[in-house]
Amino acid sequence: MSKITKVKGTQDFLPDDMARWSRIIQKIHTIMGKYNYGQISTPAFEYTKLFSRSIGEDTDIVNKEMYSWTDQGGKSLTLKPEQTAAVVRAYIENNLQAISSMNKLYYIEPSFRRERPQKGRYRQFNQFGIETIGSPFPEADAEVISIAYRTCQELGITDFELYINSIGSPECRKKYIFELVQYLQKYSDSLSDISKRRINTNPLRILDTKDDKEIEILEGAPNILEFIDSDSLEHFKTLLALLDASKIPYTVEKKLVRGLDYYNKTTFEIRSNRLGAQSAICGGGRYDSLINQLGGKETAAVGFAMGLERASMLSNLGSTSTIRFIYIASIGDNAIKRAFKLAENLRSLENSKIHLDVTRRSIKSQFREANKLHSDFVIVIGDNELEKGGCTIKNLLTKDEQFVDDEKIIAFFN
Ligand code: AMP
Fold first, then answer.
1. Which atom from ligand 1 is nearest to the alpha carbon of 258?
2. Each residue of 210-261: pLDDT tens digit?
3. Measuring CA to CA, how many Å separate 257 from each of 204, 206, 230, 312, 414?
């Protein structure tokens, strides 16, 4: 029979991968604790309209990347393609603003998008993100950006850069889009088919182009920062001053508008050129109108989402652990019983992993396995040890071997 494989664009995480993954997740929880953020988790799927209403009808995600289906009750449901809309839905539904006017939330959740798989791009991927809800002020943006920056640093990512921009208010963006379209139409013969179409559907997306010729054309395009209103400009300047004061380096990138409809004022991205074509580790921005748009009270908010597979590819947090590994080898029925009990007792030791052989293989094979698992110690229990009321403990690093009485085993490892 033919084998069943995993779905294209998905990944298995094997125990070694998970050990590394856990270290990354643990680090994130620690950072979030220091900033006093609370974790939130939302369902894997939501009503489709949540995403079409928030992300925008004219975006790649909504147009062609969502995993949507109609359930037996006739409702259209979608696996979350991103997390902000779901967090905002939960914020409104659970009345979180009644508990506090300021909510600092973070999540670590899987997202699903039917994109073309490639290095760093999957159809199921994990995002760590934060949503800072309740402040219209630039210090909230600065805190969000510093969390993204610090997370990259603490994950041991070395080559990354922060890009930042402001896209102002929806009104000034309309003016900008009008000018951008006028400009691009002059060059429409030189644009790719997809960009030609986007002039009418979503012109801002053209700024994301990877096509060299289009990049050159865009050099002369109008700059969004020249169109933004005075309030947005003031906000942007204060934010940059806060980043300067915290010594967070950045590059103002006039083409950074981000794909989703709900952003206003600040947009930012962290990229690394070690990632290949999918260079974005993290993206975020301010979304002051989204909560109202989804039925909540008008509330200012800012956040980011970081792709954890990409962060993990760049992270130098190894999975090497400082935990002592003790392998218990036994031979014979009585020895197996003794070994089982000893293993349970040894699990009271701090910072230790106890691996009990349960395969009844020969002592030689058990030693081979202990070496393969990089054990620090092997405890051997056979007839000889049972008779003498103890066990033999071998240190695999120093090769020292000694007999230890039963009642002294715990003390030996302490
Ligand atoms: P976005 O909201 O699309 O900017 O996504 C935020 C972050 O999630 C990106 O900066 C990536 O690091 C990560 N990301 C987005 N799409 C994918 C994907 N298909 N596979 C892996 N990571 C992704």
1. 4
2. 888 999 999 999 999 999 999 999 999 999 999 999 999 999 999 998 867 7
3. 7, 10, 18, 26, 58
3-state secondary structure of 212: helix
The residue type of 305 is: A
Q: Using CA atoms, how far apart are residues 125 and 308, in angstroms rounded to an integer?
A: 7
Residues 85-133 pLDDT 10s: 999 999 999 999 999 999 999 999 999 999 999 999 999 999 999 999 9
| pTM of structure | 0.89
- Comparing C-alpha atoms, which of 181, 269, 189 is closest to residue 222? 181
Residue 122 CA to ligand 1 center (angstroms) comes to 9
Residue 362: how many CB atoms within 10 A of its CB?
A: 11
Can you tell me the distance from the alpha carbon of 165 to that of 253, in angstroms, rounded to the nearest whole number? 6
DSSP string, 226-291: GTS-HHHHHHHHHHHHHHHHTT---EE-TT---S-TT-EEEEEEEE-GGGTT--EEEEEEE-TTHH
Ligand 1 pocket: which residues have CB below 6 Å? 82, 113, 115, 120-122, 125, 127, 280-283, 305, 307, 309-310
Buried b (16+ CB within 10 A) or exposed e, 335-359: bbebbeebbeebeeeeeebbbbbee
pLDDT of residue 80: 98
What are the pLDDT digits (tens) for 134-152? 999 999 999 999 999 999 9
Write the pLDDT tens digit of every residue in 356-382: 999 999 999 999 999 999 999 999 999
Parallel/antiparallel/unpaired status of strands 251-252 and 280-286: unpaired
| Ligand 1 center–CA 235 separation, angstroms | 27
